[in-house]
Amino acid sequence: MFSIEFSIFLAVALGVLSVVFFMGKGNGVIDAFQGKNAPKRKKRTPEEDRKYQRVFGVFCLLLMIDEIMMIFLAPTNKIWNIVSIVLIVLIFAGVIIYLKKNFPEG
Fold it and tell me: How far is Cα 84 from Cα 2, in angstroms, rounded to an integer?
């Protein structure tokens, strides 16, 4: 969909975010995207917080894999653009369903 350079940049950024979340250092990233006016989230135990960040780590890892596949498959196979969009929607839906089920407070 975009240029290969953009896909490479996005894959690297998602890889870095994935590592940050898997290391358990992603609270700042989560807080940055939450916003100022968002309701305060319930305080989690360290185990719950680690599990919460691991979900986002897997999310970023899956999106990174999709971007890497875009780099190699999109120039030769135009149907891959549609497959990629479907994969991204399924990944988003899976993460939202998992978070709603396991972390109902948001």
Answer: 12
